[in-house]
């Protein structure tokens, strides 16, 4: 079995991904991929790390004629096993301690109750009942008053918040309405000014053209009168 086949088998047997194995050996994942594809092999230092990691012999790993040991173990360090055992022992001790404390607490409570009921009589029962009833009623009254007070405070806060939001919305609406009104008035005034300007320009242009036409008409009339006068003079001379 070739080295690349062995490294794949060891990695999968220990449920490791290429990234997991790369992290344990402090190499890139691409390096693990090249090893498994047979494109490259690790140096001797990494070979020794692999043998320690998977608990295999170097000869079995490097010699293609030799197979891997059948008793190859998963990747578990001795220190990791010891830590796990210590953790389990500590956990068991904590559970046992809690059980002892719980049992002692229950025993003391039962002992206390037994001592209380030893001298228990109907009269003491009624006294205890009425005493506790009065306390419970006072506590209920205090709690009810506090709940009513809290309810009133919350209701007032909600009303104040609603009024605040309503006022803000009203102010915002009035502001937007005023802005729209101002913008409308501004545009209307601009259109009115533009209309008046155009109208005045048209009137001025009309008056100018009328004056020019009137002047032209007067000039034509004078020219016609001159021509008539000239014709009259010529007719007189011919006679």
Q: What structural keywords apply?
A:
single chain; 239 residues; mainly alpha; 434 Repressor (Amino-terminal Domain); 0% strand; elongated
Q: Specify Rg, calculated over alpha carbons.
A: 56 Å
**Proper CATH architecture of the domain at 3-74:** Orthogonal Bundle
The helix content, as a percent range, equals: over 70%
Series of H and E elements: HHHHHHH
Which descriptor suits the 3D outline? elongated
Structure, described:
The protein is 85% helix and 0% strand. Among the domains are: 72 residues, lambda repressor-like DNA-binding domains (434 Repressor (Amino-terminal Domain), Orthogonal Bundle); 40 residues. The protein has 239 residues and is mainly α.
Short description:
The chain starts with a helix and ends with a helix.
What is the topology?
Elements: H1 3-13, H2 18-25, H3 29-37, H4 44-54, H5 58-62, H6 78-118, H7 122-238
